[in-house]
Amino acid sequence: MEQPIENIELFYLTLEDFEALKEANIQSYGAMPNSYWKIEEIDRLVKLFPEGQVIIKVDGNIAGCALSVIVDYDAIEDQHTYDDITADPDFKIHDEEGDVLYGIDVFIHPDYRGLRLGRRLYDYRKELCEQLNLKGIVFGGRIPNYHKYSDQLSPKQYIDKVRQKELEDPVLNFQLSNDFHPVRILKDYLEGDKASEEFAVLMEWDNIYYSKPTKKPASVKSVVRLGLIQWQMRPYENLETLLHQAEYFIDSVAGYRSDFALFPEFFNAPLMASFNHLSEPEAIRKLASFTEEIKQRLSQLSISYNINIITGSMPEVVNETLYNVGYLCRRDGSVERYEKIHVTPDEAKVWGMQQGSELKTFETDCGKIGILICYDSEFPELSRLLAQEGMDILFVPFLTDTQNGFSRVKLCAQARAIENECYVAIAGSVGNLPNVHNMDIQYAQSAVFTPCDFAFPSNGIKAEATPNTEMILVADVDIDLLRELHNFGAVRNLKDRRDDFYEVKRV
Fold this sequence. Notes:
- There is one protein chain.
- This protein has 13 helices and 22 strands.
- It is of the alpha+beta class.
């Protein structure tokens, strides 16, 4: 094209376009037998599935076309042919209740190649697939340069060399660059396709936004609102006054329709003031006697305020052994427990705290979450195990007394967000407790961290609280952005792991 282009537009195909479509079809596939669609076939496709048939016009001339049907993926034979999909003029293979979009043709007129119009057609198909909530797109892709190497390479070997950039195949390269991946070789796919030796590759694109249809009225949320509680350590007369303050904050974040409320590690430590006459190991065990009632009360509040509560952490004695534990109190009334896996040297030395051994992700109405208590966030293996289970949000309740300790938690939490392509929310306590041994001062700046890519803040910080100030922090995180990052990010930390070289696994 030497003349400047004034207009490029995408249109639904109509029967009035047939003659121009036929001419463009012949120009594109002139060497192929039956190289153009018949008018009755186009008529049927347009009537059956108008959204699936589109053309691109350049200055009013048809420059390209994409035709497709919806099929039931399980109904497609592993070894099917192009005729199996298209030979029936009534296109009975089209199934409105199907789960994948099958591309039956894409072509660009030779005069308009080099304008990346094919990418526009592919992008339209992807958007259509997402709008219709289909699993993905499939089609039999030609390998037109295969005839040059068929005496040396099998189709599989040829595909591998194209993927490794050792060989050039314009069609396969284009499909791979548009995020399609090979599924299997199709033999005798398109009769008369001598360039491909009648082989094709079943190519597939996965719709990362697909959600399996359900009869249940509830669904997992895409945008999730987090409510972080930066807790002020202060004297409390008794358990009731502490729970009254906890309810005040839950009411506050629930008033903003938050989906989660996150408390800090050992937020109930002020209650130890009554046990200062005891040794520190005895005092922490006395504090543990409140844990069961706090758990039950916070579970009740999660129901009454319609919010999932992550209870920070509290000491708990199990069979005479002291652990640092917390609870996920879901708004449906269910409760699950989590443990601190790595206790700090101080926790072990002063209190006799023991290491936990339970690690798992938790299903919620906002997707899969993980919870690590403070020091655990500084061990990347734990969050990687959670990421391998599909974690979207990692919650880290923490307690740090110095800026050095806080910096360790903050910087490690940011690293966890990047390397695991997830959101990380941290919440800590501020203030001081001069009347509680081993809990004198606290330093915190609660925050929500994100991966560092174009859809996220460039510094990876979604929101931060004011340092050392009692407050709440409310922030929205978009789970769909994570799905997009996993597949299309500038870098893909999860996908690019060298599982052939190293792995992280449970013992």
